[in-house]
Structure prediction request, 327 residues.
Amino acid sequence: MNKIKNIGVLTSGGDAPGMNAAIRAVVRAAIYHDLKVTGILRGYEGLINADFIEMDRKSVANIIQRGGTILKTARSDNFRTKEGRKKAFEQLKGHQIDALIVIGGDGTFTGAHLFSQEFGFPVLGLPGTIDNDLEGTDFTIGYDTAINTVINAVDKIRDTAESHDRLFIVEVMGRDSGLIALRSGLGVGAEAIMIPEANMGVEGLITRLESGRKDKASKIIIVAEGDEIGGAFNVGEVLKKKFPAYDIRVSVLGHIQRGGSPSCMDRVLASRLGVVAVEGLLDGHSGAMVGQKDKEIVFTPFDHAIKHLDAKEISPAWMKLVEILSL
Ligand code: F6P
Prediction:
């Protein structure tokens, strides 16, 4: 017989649009299955400190459309230690919480992996990060909204770039992953995209610009913050020296990419995965992230989900697309 009666839910790491939709789905699915749900505030830090709130149907009303996370989030150094995780386990036991759903990215799942291994505690994860850098799901919750935020911003930059015949270097988020840069760059028709996975380097960029159309005065270069060249301002300095005739400006989009109302795609993904996570725990699944691949639900062990294998999506063929389309 399944002993799960009370599920704890938390959001951890960088927030992502759609986290609230995921929390709502977890709470509503748990109530549907006659379970209690405990909200854990500020991620693993709140778990260690027993910062708990009881959640009901109403506590998740009117949040599906809101960015951020009503449970707040944090990156916890304490949970990286064995003592921290032991304290967390004791808090769960002490408060009769029988299983955990963690919503976050690779840092969150690294902690969840250790925790479920050490204590044999039932844990499932939902992929909540704008970076889309998890194996085991085609898209993470928040990614679609973030890339749409980027294209809306860069479309505006393109207007002014065009009016002034300027070259803009736009930096987007993605500490370890160029997926935001790649998709949004294709979406805005960028002249070049610099991402850690492709290693274009500044020489490659210069060659691209030298061989590009000379009659096209406005240009947009998208740089992922994780690119080894060291960010948009560095690229700007190098290009200013190399191409003194260009009128160059730099724009760093920053945290606007993490906020805002989630897209329909993120809301639906979060809703579906949230329900599956609750039912997955009841079916005995644990130690895995719940994702969606080719429209099918997939449970991927945490240690596999964080391997970044999906970086393979950035094949030379994608980079070739950028080159062909920026003619
Ligand atoms: O992991 C999501 C992410 O938005 C990365 O793309 C970015 O590098 C990082 O978080 C920024 O973190 P912080 O908000 O702590 O500066």
